[in-house]
Structures are given as C-alpha cells and as structure tokens.
Amino acid sequence: MKILVINAGSSSLKYQFYDMKDETVLAKGRVERIGFETSILVHEPSGKPDVRHVSEILDHTTAVRHLLDQLVHPDHGVIASIADIDAVGHRVVHGGESFSESVIVDDQVKREIRNLFDLAPLHNPAHMMGINAVELNMPDVPQVVVFDTAFHQSMPPKTYLYPIPMVLYRKHKIRRYGFHGTSHMYVSDRAAAFLGKPLDQLKMITCHIGNGASCTAILEGKSYDTSMGMTPLEGLMMGTRSGDLDPAVVPLAMAKHDLNVSEVNSMLNKHSGLQAVSGLSSDMREIIEAMQAGDKQAALAFEMYEYRIRKYIGSYAAAMNGVDAVVFTAGVGENAALLRERICEQLSYLGVELDRERNNEQSSSDRRITTEQSRVQVLVIPTNEELVIARDTYRLVNNRGDERGE
User: Fold this and answer.
1) Which of 45, 220, 52, 65 minimizes the C-alpha distance to 136?
2) 160-176 residue pLDDT tens
C-alpha cells in the first residue's frame, strides 16, 4: 500500500509519500506561497535529483494537482499512475473532545472539524482546505485524519480543566487540549523500546522542542498532563510564542498600545518568545552563536528558554511522584546539545547524571545521553510524525477493507 501524507497550512502544503511495505519514503516535498503568482514547489524523489518550480498556484486544489503531477512525472516521478496512491493521511491540529483517535474522513468528520474552527482558527481551516483539495483531485481515494490533540484525551479533569467559571467549559469547551500528541506518543513508544521496559510501567516526560515546544507527562503509557493548552500558545517559551504569562498582561498591553484582539494575538503568537527577548532571531542556533559571542540579550533569551523547560520537567516529576525517563525530540531538542546540557545539569536532584560525550555526539538515531548509573535516564529520540500518520492511515484503511471483505 502506498500512502500520501499531507500537512496543509494556510499558504503552504508539505507532503511525504510512503511505500508501507517497508515504510520507505518514496518522495517528499512542499508547496510554499500558495495564493501568490510566485508559488514555490520543491519535490524530492528518492534516488533522483530534486525539483524546484516557481509558478502561480492560487489555491490548495491546484497545489495538490501540482504535487500529484510530480509524483507521476516520467523523469522525476516515483509511481506510474495516480491510481497507485491507495490512501491519503492528513495532520489536523485540533480534534477537540470529538476525537480521541484517528478516523477515516466522511461527511460527519468534516462537519466536526469545521465546528472546531473557533478553537484552532490558525490551523483547522487550512487542514480542511487540504482535505477538500484531495477530494477534488482524487474523489475515490480514502482519506484519514490524525489529530495532534488525540493522544492527550486521556488527561483527567483535574489537569485539563481551567479554574474559571464552569459555564465556559460546558458551553464553549474551553479547556486544556494539548498538542504535538503524535510526536509525544511516537517518542514515548520508542523510548520504552530503547529502555527495554513496558511503556505502561514507566513515568516519562517527553519534551518536543522545536519552533513550537511542549512537554508532556506520560503516566502508564498515557498523557497525564501537557504544557500546551486550549491553543498551542500556552506553556513553554517558544521561537515566537510567549508561552505562560499573567492573563492580565493582555488587557494592559491592549490599553497601553491601543491594540485590538487580532493584534495582541499576533504579538503573543508571532512576535514573542526567543525572537522578542533576543531581538535577534527565533532560531536557537543563532541564539547560541550570538550568546557565545557575548550578546547579553541572546544569553538572557537562552536562559529563560532553558529555565522554563526545566521548570516544567520538575513540575511533572512532582505530578507523577517521580520520573524514570526524560526524552528530548524535535529540531531543537534533537540538535541543541548545549541546551540539553544546561537542563540536565540542574536535574541532579532527580538523579540525572549527564554523560557529556554521549550528549555531544552527532547522531540521527535513538540514544541515551546519561550515564549507566543515572537514576533517571535521559534520551534523544528523533520524532517522525509523518510516519505515525502513515501508519494510522494504513491501519484504518486496511481494517475497513477487511470489514468489507475486500
């Protein structure tokens, strides 16, 4: 079975194409600047030269048609016909309380995703455009949606409810949902396998640290608490997001600088975090380089970023009454050895003993960065959200075929 995985944004679309026989990536790519005359398509077929086109791509339907053209192109395609695509899997950020697992797309599923637009106005409408675009280009191909929030539906009320009037939850479903669930689930499974222990017997803290970042407390294999909230804005300091702050900051900033709701939302999501504090960049590589060159604002941004991650790790160790393993993943978590070092140095009270040589190794494989004697093991596990989406799509479409006797 061959599965196309799509992650649609408001003006972009990323894709990976899998052969599920051995879970190899046949091709991957992206379409950027959708809606402009100078849209960019980058196609990277396995074993063949990359392709880059600049052309007018005004909507997602056209973007999907262009990527399909690349997959079947006589020179740089990887399949003979569109009919070779057996299913399409989509990343959808917000599933609310409606979805605790991945599902095959039907009219009811599409209605529920639309009903969640208010909870994820920056993401779900774009994902819906991706689903509709595939349907228009390949009407008979089954589609599956995999939700970032689904893994966190195991959280108990004491961790997902906010201490605000309950009418806001009952009427509007305002609560903690959490995100990056596909990544947290994947790396926790990998970590348990690496440690050779059953996942349901471990207390684990997974740290997905990229431009967006979140920590999750995983108790007996299930999400118990997570740092992102109703939206991906809550929690850790991120590349351009503020993370946790006093809610009174919002009306005060609006009053002092005559900001409207849209402007303050943009400030907190796109103009805060590392970018705001450093005044330099949202990229941790540039922050570390500037800090090591003596830039005080970059050093402050780094210290704040590290401190907030470490504070969440400590709070989740308290929440679970202990921790067996801490896992770092995603772009920053996998590659910023200095950040991991600074965090682990201050976790000695938990019994963390960092092995600096292991921590500084350049590797793309699962690995331990603590000593053998460390009471809490710290691991680096590369995430693979696209593979999880492909696997869920394969499982659901296969099961449907079995039920139908196909």
Assistant:
1) 65
2) 999 999 999 999 999 99
The predicted-structure confidence for 100-134, as pLDDT tens digits, reads as follows 999 999 999 999 999 988 888 878 999 999 999 99
- Which of helix, strand or coil describes residue 350? helix
What pLDDT digit, counting tens, does each position of 302-356 carry? 999 999 999 999 999 999 999 999 999 999 999 999 999 999 999 999 999 999 9
Angle between helices 249-257 and 261-270 (to 10 degrees): 120
The C-alpha atoms of residue 5 and residue 28 are separated, in whole angstroms, by 9
Cα dist from 241 to 147, 181, 254, 341, whole Å:
21, 19, 17, 23
- Where do we find the tokens 């791509």? 57
Average pLDDT value for the chain? 95
Catalytic site residue from 59, 148, 225, 258: 148
- Binding residues are 7, 14, 91, 208-212, 283-285, 331-335, 385
* Closest alpha carbon to 333 in 379, 393, 275, 268: 379
Q: Which two tokens stand for residue 296?
A: 């005080």
Could you tell me which residues are annotated as the binding site for Mg(2+)? 7, 385
101 C-beta neighbours (distance < 10 Å), count: 12
**Which residues contact residue 7 at a Cβ distance below 8 angstroms, ignoring those fewer than 6 apart?**
13, 14, 15, 90, 91, 130, 386
> Is 148 assigned a catalytic role?
yes
Residue 317 CA to residue 391 CA, distance in Å, equals: 31
Q: Is the pTM of this model over 0.90?
A: yes
Partner residues linked to 326 by β-bridges:
205, 378
CB 31 within 8 A of CB 8: no
Residues in the annotated binding site for substrate: 91
Q: Which residues are annotated as a binding site for ATP?
A: 14, 208-212, 283-285, 331-335
In single-letter form, the type of residue at position 238 comes to: M
Compute CA distances 120 → 15, 32, 34, 149, 292, whole Å.
Answer: 21, 21, 20, 11, 38
Position 140 pLDDT exceeds 60: yes
